[in-house]
Design a protein that fits this description.
alpha+beta
Length: 233
């Protein structure tokens, strides 16, 4: 019978048994370590994602194209806010001037058809600066006069228009708006108007009015300061 170097017959040697036991014990350990490392990887990855989502975005570099664009946009917005709606304001001023020019032009011609009563309400009237104490409505302690737009006789209308045009001396084409204010109730305009006399100084005045829902203008006040010389004639 020959000699078996591995040991007796088919019985494994001590070294083989040890290696087999080591292999059997290593598999569960590797599985456990793999699971632990996998869970750690999930926690780390999830933490990085949450951190990136919650971190604030860095400010744009003013020297970069994006920063320059953002700065230009912010500057443009600030400029727009400080400047205000200039085109709209300019259009409103031009509209007020057109109303006053039309009113004074009709006053010079003594044609009050568009204004007496015009689009005014029943309770509306015109406050104006009279030329003489005998002008219609010139009985107020402040030196001004007021007449109603409705039911005013033609003769009185002519006297009012004569006073408003300062005896026909104003030149409506030479009217300049110096200030204009709009409110929910109406508008107020300060203006200067040229006179026809070669040596006459421009008159300053103030007018108030409103616009009806249909877009028609109504002037309720047109006065000149008392300290001015009336260029009648």
């Amino acid at each position: 019978m020959g000699y078996d170097p591995r040991g007796r017959g088919d019985v494994p040697s001590i070294h083989q048994s040890a290696l087999e036991n080591l292999r059997r014990g290593t598999k569960p350990v590797l599985v456990f370590l793999g699971a632990v490392f996998g869970l750690m990887a999930l926690f780390v990855g999830g933490g990085l994602i949450i951190t990136q989502q919650t971190m604030p975005a860095p400010p744009a570099d003013s020297g970069s194209a994006a920063g320059a664009g953002a700065g230009a946009t912010a500057g443009a917005g600030a400029g727009t806010a400080s400047a205000g709606p200039q085109p709209t304001a300019s259009a409103a001023v031009q509209a007020r001037r057109a109303v006053l020019v039309a009113f004074l032009t009709d006053a010079v011609r003594k044609n009050g058809t568009r204004w007496f009563p015009g689009a005014s309400a029943e309770t509306d009237g015109l406050t104006y600066t009279p030329l003489s104490p005998g002008d219609p409505g010139a009985d107020r302690p402040d030196g001004l006069a007021r007449v109603p737009y409705h039911g005013l006789p033609t003769a009185d209308t002519d006297k009012v228009l004569t006073a408003v045009s300062r005896g026909g001396a104003v030149d409506p084409a030479g009217l300049t708006v110096t200030a204009s204010t709009d409110t929910e109730q109406g508008w107020t305009v300060r203006f200067t108007v040229r006179v026809r006399a070669a040596t006459g100084a421009p008159l300053t005045g103030e007018a108030e009015g409103y616009t009806t829902p249909s877009g028609a203008p109504v002037i309720i006040r047109l006065v000149y300061p008392k300290n001015q010389t009336d260029p009648q004639g």
